[in-house]
Design brief:
Heat Shock Protein 90, alpha+beta, two-stranded antiparallel sheet, Helix Hairpins, 3 domains, 5-stranded mixed β-sheet, 9 helices, single chain
Length: 346
């Protein structure tokens, strides 16, 4: 039906081309500050339109002739032209498959771009939230001090609170810098052999006061027969362990809180298990546990006010993966969390 009247189609094409050429010529003269003669413009437009129409009609007829000839021959001698028909069918099938694959790829890319945009917007909102609180607190304390506080003890208290909020901002900026370096691969690991048991004991000593204050009962499983020599960046791996212990304290159960730390021997690594019986994590949230600022959402969901930058687990994940290892979490809301990460053997 599309090519039922080739001359009419060619005439329409010629008319469009002629009008376009005529208008283009007029604009050229007008831009040069000249006034073209109407007769010349008309002759140019009509001439170009006629030439275009003749060429278009010829091409359409040629196309129809080729296609109709192939169809006629195939209908009258299907055995002879079966291969051509099959080839055409295969070609159409290939084109259809390529178009389908392109549509699917485009859909996947669109979904990925939407997800990235959502993550970007959430990151900006969370960063704003984390920066806003200490800035407003500092502003409030400083304005109060500027208005004049006669009580020396109260002045000292306001200065300390403002200082703590400054420290919080510094920690946030430092963690952001570390995370940026880890994500870009620019942070160089200083790997050396050391004993993982001693690292666990040192971390427990650093956290001793906080663990006692929270009333957490600690259970260590560090087999004496286990060869605990590992090859890793000791300072960075200590950062991972301290973060997990700190989270266990922050989200500890109010009823007989416990913390279990265990070393498990694997083929080419040692697995370090950090398990608590705290508030746990909802199943829908586990996939996002290692995102930046996830801590803020988690605290709001469970109504438990905690401190921190919300970047600890994101940094821990990148540190572990920089050692070609992985970190996993198993958790249930109201029944604690278990984190397991690997450290390569020496």
């Amino acid at each position: 039906m599309m090519f039922k009247n080739p001359r009419r189609i060619a005439s329409v094409i010629g008319l469009i081309v002629g009008l376009t050429n005529g208008l283009s010529m007029y604009l050229v003269f007008w831009l040069q500050g000249q006034t073209p003669q109407a007769v010349n413009l008309m002759l140019f437009a009509v001439g170009s339109g006629i030439v275009t129409a003749v060429i278009a009609e010829s091409m359409i007829k040629q196309f129809m002739h080729v296609k109709l000839t192939r169809i006629y021959k195939a209908l009258n001698n299907p055995e002879k032209y079966r291969d051509d028909m099959l080839q055409d069918a295969k070609e159409l099938g290939r084109v259809d498959m390529e178009v389908t694959m392109w549509v699917r790829r485009a859909a996947v890319e669109m979904t990925s771009l939407r997800a990235q945009d959502t993550i970007r917007r959430e990151f900006i909102a969370n960063l704003s939230h984390e920066m806003k609180n200490p800035v407003f607190n500092i502003q409030g304390y400083l304005l109060t001090l500027m208005d004049g506080v006669e009580d020396a003890a109260q002045r000292e208290r306001f200065f300390k609170k403002a200082s703590r909020n400054v420290d919080r901002m510094i920690r946030l900026l430092r963690d952001m810098d570390v995370l940026a370096h880890l994500e870009s691969g620019k942070l160089t690991l200083e790997q050396s052999p050391y004993g993982l048991k001693q690292q666990v004991l040192d971390a427990m000593e650093q956290m001793e006061d906080r663990l006692e204050h929270a009333g957490i009962q600690v259970h260590l499983t560090l087999p004496d027969t286990l060869d605990d020599r590992v090859m890793a960046d000791k300072q960075r791996m200590e950062q991972v362990l301290l973060n997990l212990i700190s989270n266990a304290i922050k989200y500890a159960s109010e009823n007989k809180p416990e913390l279990h730390i265990q070393l498990i021997d694997q083929a080419n690594r040692l697995d370090l298990v950090v398990k608590d019986n705290g508030i746990g994590i909802a199943q829908d949230d586990i996939t996002r546990i290692f995102e930046r600022f996830y801590r803020a959402d988690r605290a709001r969901v469970h109504g438990k006010q905690v401190s921190g930058t919300g970047l600890g687990l994101a940094i821990a994940k990148h540190i572990v993966e920089a050692h070609d290892q992985s970190i996993t979490v198993a958790a249930e809301l109201g029944h604690g969390s278990t984190f397991i990460y690997g450290v390569p053997k020496a």
